[in-house]
Amino acid sequence: MSEDRDTRLDPRTIAFCQTLSGFKGIGTYEWVVAEDRVVWSPELMAIYGVDQAPIAEQGFTEMVHPEDRMRVEAETSAFMAEGETYEHEFRIVRPNGEVRTVHDRGLIERSNDGSVRRMRGLNVDITDLRQKELETKAKLRQSEARLQLAYEVADIGAWDLDLRKRRSVWSAGLYNLLGLEQAQPASDQLFFEHVHPDDADWLRERFAESIAARTNFDEVFRVLRSDGEARIVAGKGRVVEEIDGEPTRMIGVNYDITERMEAQEHGNLLMQEVNHRFKNMLSLVQAVARQTMQSQSEGFLERFNARIHALSAAQDMLVHNKWTGVDVEALVRSQLAHLKDAIGRRIWIAGPQVRIKADAAQALGMAIHELSTNAGKYGSLSNEKGDVSIDWRLETDLLGQQEFVISWIEKDGPPVKEPAHTGFGSIVIEKMTKHALDASVDVKYAPEGLVWRLRCSDGCLLRRPSR
């Protein structure tokens, strides 16, 4: 029955579902609204933990978490009322009771009268992403708890300032905060001497304003301890005594919030980075599909699947390394996995141990894949005697700056001719790598064999080779 339904789908939808097969964490679907007919890809069924797709939309709705179900139904109705695209997030409950979080986005196809004919989209399992968010928030709460504990045990810097004589009394905590000996006479002047130079002027102004206006002093600023270490400090204070309308006494506290601020900044950067990579991955898949179809409509699925698997191989390595980068040799070998029997016989790999950054790894991996594919079809690996050398190194340019250089050199293959038109493979090995690595790319179609060479600053590397 499901096979009959699949054959009735728009061919473009079937092709899209097939090309995404095996791409981890992404599943595709189509809902033919007029017939209330639903078709899911195997990957989507895996996300939902089922062996077959629901027959109708109601079956999907029942899989949505009860707490999210009403919202999802309302949002879906709003999407169908107007617009051509949709995007939202919700939780699902698998048959075994496991709760997962998915991000749903897609396109709406309408009839001439504006009614919805079908909705095509994809779900991405973002459970792990949301878990990281919770962990980050938990770390922030732990940091705040530590701060509260510091208050409770009086591990804060308290001060009491005589505004007429400009004399201060400091607690031991304030001396410790600034890294000073308690034998030093306390004063507001001594304190401001340890405020970071970039913060000192505006902080003095704000302090004076709070005294004149009898408003609470509540600021965050940096201090420099006596050992030169910079710390982030929260300062609070207020005027508590006056004589004849003139403020005479001000009290307050200062406490170190460096760890809390750093954890918050790290959390913000993490969320921005995860969202950035998620959007980039979807955009890259769309770009590969579009360019492959434009440059070679015949054999689209075979070419597109190969490119997606090349991208997936690089993605798996990045995930395994927690997005800290990829070893260049491991990246090259992963893209030559289908030619592993030729490595050491007709394919020669050499270079120092270096790690390349995440964005650069994806582009370089696809370039190696395209080069190997072309070599097998038209180049030195298409006959019985040709070979390929792949090597990388660090060089020093005329200005003394180091550069990362990687080369792909073919020889003893059929005579090489420059292609008559620019296909997607040429875009990958030239334009895409040039943009992703901020590099210069040189391609020579020499009769004796193709030579491809990429050169970029070593800023694209995480670790340089030992010398």
Automatic annotation (TrEMBL):
CDD domains: PAS
Translocase listed as a keyword: no
UniProt feature coiled coil, ranges: none
Domain PAS residue range list: 143-214
Pfam families: HWE_HK, PAS_3
Segment forming the signal sequence: none
EC id: 2.7.13.3
Domain PAC: 86-138, 217-269
InterPro entries: HATPase_C_sf (IPR036890), PAC (IPR001610), PAS (IPR000014), PAS-assoc_C (IPR000700), PAS-like_dom_sf (IPR035965), PAS_fold_3 (IPR013655), Sig_transdc_His_kinase_HWE (IPR011102)
Assigned keywords, A-Z: ATP-binding, Chromophore, Flavoprotein, FMN, Kinase, Nucleotide-binding, Phosphoprotein, Photoreceptor protein, Receptor, Repeat, Sensory transduction, Transferase, Virulence
Catalysed reactions listed for this entry: ATP + protein L-histidine = ADP + protein N-phospho-L-histidine
Lineage top rank: taxon: Bacteria
SUPFAM superfamilies tied to this protein: PYP-like sensor domain (PAS domain)
Name assigned to this protein: Blue-light-activated histidine kinase
